Amino acid sequence: MKSIIFFLILMSSVVFSQPYWHIVTIDSDGWEGYTCSLELDSLNRPHIAYVRWYNPTGKDLKYAYYDGNSWIISVVVNSVDILEPSIALDTNDQPNISYQDYGYLKYAKYNGTTWIFNTIEQYGRFTAIAVDSLNHPHIAYQETETDVFKYAHFNGSNWEIQTLDTQYASGQGTNNSITTDSQNKPHISYRQDSVGGIALSAF
Questions:
Q1: pLDDT in tens, 127-162
Q2: Higher pLDDT residue, 45 or 198?
Q3: Are residues 121 and 138 in contact, defined by beta-carbon separation less than 8 angstroms?
Q4: CB 53 within 8 A of CB 39
Q5: E strand spans, the chain
Q6: CATH class (in words) of the domain with range 5-202
Q7: Alpha-carbon distance 175 to 197, whole Å?
Q8: What is the pTM of this model?
Q9: Which residue(s) pair with 128 in the sheet?
């Protein structure tokens, strides 16, 4: 059985008084669309990061974007166990993707010509990424060795890592989301499993 990745957009109709959803099939090559992440660029065109399962050599991290005429699909990287990608676009509309690769927290950036890869930490999953106005990535994630919630930021030269929540719980730092404000400061929401609630962290 194949899994298919879809894109849905709410459209305005000139015929009907009510808006409607337009559904587009993007990729149906195999077990596509596991853990999708979506971002719109400056022209309101969608960019999607997602995982293809059950490739003969492991899993594919895939990237699809709409160029105004058609969907362009590529494999970013193939590995044994890729999970939970998150995508954000920089000021040039280039994709930045955080993801888990066989337990490692990794980051991929497209510079317009090729993909550049960084390994940030040995243990990391449940990633969420944002890119600020300086094109520096910010990543929130759960560090899986101790199940604490962490934040990684590229300062232009190096990756800086901070522990945000040290309360041990298996769900600590899952279901998280990150954004940056006008001063490039991160704001993060996440599941705080140690108290059974949701928390907001701001720099």
A1: 999 999 999 999 999 988 888 889 999 999 999 999
A2: 45
A3: no
A4: no
A5: 5-11, 20-27, 31-40, 46-55, 58-66, 71-79, 82-89, 95-101, 104-110, 115-121, 125-131, 137-143, 148-154, 159-165, 174-180, 186-192, 197-202
A6: mainly beta
A7: 11
A8: 0.87
A9: 140
Asked whether 165 and 173 are in contact (CB, 8 A), the reply is: yes
Q: What is the pLDDT of residues 90-114, one digit of tens each?
A: 999 999 999 999 899 999 999 999 9
201 bridge partner residues: 188
Query: pLDDT tens across 28-71, in order?
Result: 876 766 789 999 999 999 999 999 886 666 889 999 999 999 99
Question: What SS3 class is residue 78?
Answer: strand
What span, in angstroms and rounded, lies between the C-alpha atoms of 159 and 181?
A: 20
CA distance readout (Å), 15 to 8, 19, 23, 85, 194: 19, 10, 18, 38, 52
Q: Give the domain ranges of the chain.
A: 5-202
Gap between the Cα atoms of 129 and 134, Å rounded: 14
